[in-house]
Amino acid sequence: MEQTTGFWQFIAQQSDKLWSQTLAHVGLTLISLIIAILIAVPLGIWIARKQRIAGAVLGFAGVLQTIPSIALLGIMIPFLGIGPKPAILALFLYALLPIIRNTYTGISGVNAAVIDAARGMGMSNWQILTKVELPLAFPVLMAGIRTATVINVGVATLAAYIAAGGLGEFIFGGIALNNSNMILAGAIPAALLAILLDFLLSLLQRVNLKRVRVTYVILPFILVTMSSFYLLPTQIGGRMLGGFTPEFMGRQDGYLGLKKVYHLGIETVVISDAVMYKAAFEKKLDVISGYSTDGRLKAFNLITLVDDRHIFPPYYAAPIVRQAVLDKHPELEAILNQLAGVINDSTMTALNYKVDELKQSPEKVAMDFMRSRHLYRPARNGSGGTIRIGSKIFGEQYILAQMYKILINGNSELQVETKTGLGGTKICFDALTNNQIDFYPEYTGTGFLVLLQPDEQTTKKLGGDTDGVYRYVSQQFNEKYQIKWLKPIGFNNTYALMMRREQAQSLQIKSITDLTKHLNKN
Amino acid sequence: MITAQNLIKHFGTATAVNNISFEVKEGENLVLLGTSGCGKTTTLRMINRLIEPDSGTVFVNGTDIRTQQPEVLRRGIGYVLQNHGLFPHYTVAENIAIVPRLLKWADQDIRKRADELFQKLNLDASLAGQYPAALSGGQQQRVGLARSLMVNPPLLLMDEPFGALDNLTRISIRKEFRALDELVKKTIVMVTHDVQEAFEMGDRICLMDKGEIKQIGTPEELLFKPANDFVRGFFDEQRLQLELRSVLLKEVFPESDASSEVSVWDRMDALLHPENGNLPADDIRIGDLMRAFETYKRK
Ligand SMILES: Nc1ncnc2c1ncn2[C@@H]1O[C@H](COP(=O)(O)OP(=O)(O)OP(=O)(O)O)[C@@H](O)[C@H]1O
Ligand SMILES: [Mg+2]
Fold first, then answer.
1. Of A165, A453, B232, B286, whose CB neighbour count within 10 A is largest?
2. Is B42 in the pocket of ligand 1 (CB under 6 A)?
3. Are residue A348 and residue A471 in the same domain, yes or no?
């Protein structure tokens, strides 16, 4: 019950946004669909005449269909930027196959004797096409268009990933924020939209083409579509443009905080983190939200802005170790702490860059780093107990796990077993508490917000306080789980605003406050 | 009316029609007869340019058909197919109005002509609003014929027009067709592989094999003066029946007062099935009939 009131409340509060997202969604779907029809129907007719190339064309359209949507959108950013254009192109490509295939099937399925009679009676090729083949293929053709429409309404939700708007903004924002009202506010209209469009087309499918002048059918359709061009989100020229993930957009320690604390007034679009960095690099976006040690910072020559008013929570990495292990091997703590304070943000970014972008192995990256910092000692190959190191499933954690392995091997008689790629936080932490691993690198913010989940008051009080959070998690973990937080490694993998290096330098923007000032000037 | 000269048509490496020439006179009914795949359809379709010959020429009314736009040529030639080729999405009335519409006839002219043909072809007026799927095979074939006759073309091409019908329907429709005044004056080229049909419908028969013409002539000529072994062999199985059918009772019994419609076969049939009640009052017996027929053949 509470859930439903919440939902209607959400709808009421966000009705403006909901309306504009729905219109954008309709616009994206219909425009791409019309273009697809204009291309796919003639193509389908053509391959029905040239059976020999039909397989190749259908195969190609089929391959397009199998490209993951996000990958397709990413590929197009350098050419078309972000926003509606690449989204429409992607939707267009997805709509091709069902329409081409059904046109082809419908036209090929027309009884040869009927065509023969038409030709024998003296109908021209055009007359045969418009009076015989298309009317007879029409139901099948329309079925293809309906399929394409339903597909497009679905895929158009992904348009939110590349700043093209649509109901995906609510859906992915809701997923990222674990806000089911928001998810439903996007998902339900999207589903209704699919049903409605499909229903309207089913009415059209039953129209007897022979009796109705084609224009009467096509014209309203085209009008609706043309008008929806104006409903698409327009891209802003000249001014700075921010592109933030759906999750960032909805978080207090994200965009909402930026507005509240910094009074940041920047035009924003919603975008997926998969394409965000690239879009910034391509100058399609000026400010993006990201993670401060992401290797792509270096790959795309971006810099992070200083969070001078501390709205982003601290995510300092430190090994967390079961107390039982430390008791059994007292030498371990000092060994692991050799890495404490050694890696700062930019160093970690550079290391991540090598693994994520240059595709070097984490072992090699870790070894190179340890040698350069003179932390490497040859492995003693001792026969002490075994230490099991865990890591989550991304590059940074792999690198850290390898570094700890090198330290333990070189400085003790202990043996090491790495259990890397343990999925997300929950899996890793459970492995630790269930004595399946002995330690893994965790982030203070994650320990605080995800694992401990303190009440709102504590969250507010400690918010951006680096030491406060570290102290809190150390104490709580010790009490609750008998797990010890060792000293932080140094870097802070938190949210950050990022800009292109040269732009930030030429505008002399170093911190978020600088950015706000710059925006207010214009 | 039609003159075909040295027509050759290959499909890939296969030769469908190998250098054939023939003529069809005005008002004549020429039947293209032969086994499956011998090139009948190909020959027929070269007359309205549905197939273009690799070499050779067709003249219709003295003009080379290549000088005419194919669509224009075809609108002036009736075309009837085995599977009637009616448009499934058009009603009967719309189907038969196709060619007149292409020729920009006025609606009332179309309606008038349609009514006329409906009557002549024994089609119920209530069928006009039906779709072809709702019609029986015989009705569909009649509508197909009506469609080809709408603009009253002087030349009619028919490709196995009765092929899809069951035997009884076929025989009765054939009879109706022969009696149709619309068809009497027309020049008709008709394809069949049914020997009976060829003999019944053809003024002359063009017997084909493997893309070549083996003999052209009247049914009697093919039957009694075969040009070669192929022609002789082709009719062997049904020879007696065909012969009986092709000879008029009057020729065997000059003194008989039977009309020129009645063949020896017809009288034989009447004798064998008196229950049908069409046995005339003369006293010809089966034995007399056979004897007189043998005598006639020897002459
Ligand atoms: N479009 C085509 N492509 C390839 N071969 C063809 C084509 N049309 C006809 N043929 C071949 O040409 C030959 C003559 O075909 P045609 O249709 O004229 O025969 P037909 O005498 O009408 O036979 P049927 O009594 O079976 O209708 C056949 O061997 C046939 O396979
Ligand atoms: Mg044929």
1. A165
2. yes
3. yes
